[in-house]
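Here's a chain:
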Amino acid sequence: MTARAQTWSNYEHNNTIKYLIGISPAGAVTFLSEGWGGRVPDKKITMESGFLNKLHPGDCVLADRGFAIHDELATRSAFLQIHKFTRGKSQTSGKDVHQSGQLSNVRIHVARVIGQLKKFKILQCTLPISHIDLINDIMVVVSAIANLNSSFVNK
């Protein structure tokens, strides 16, 4: 019952395992956290996965709105770029439109890589609880195979 409670995702309406995935500008998986129960907040995974220790001064991290890690990145001289939403604004500046377009292009590449990972049949099935200790190894192998594919980013 504890495992079910820890892995329940209100977003997915199912029991899930979450990973923090870092992707290079060329579309390669460069960071993969350990698996976490679907109930764990994204910020907690980010803080405890070792991801922040991999950052260098000047690095830019692109993330969804839920990643409130501005201060944590600032301590490493890195910065966070989050897509600006225009709901409620009457007009958007030209600079914001240009930046939003660039971020949207990058987000498409991220979605492609994650989509490629999700296409593996082993990740589409319900994993028996007796195999839960294998899920991190499965994710490493799936990510490595995805990295062997040609780049997802148009040259």
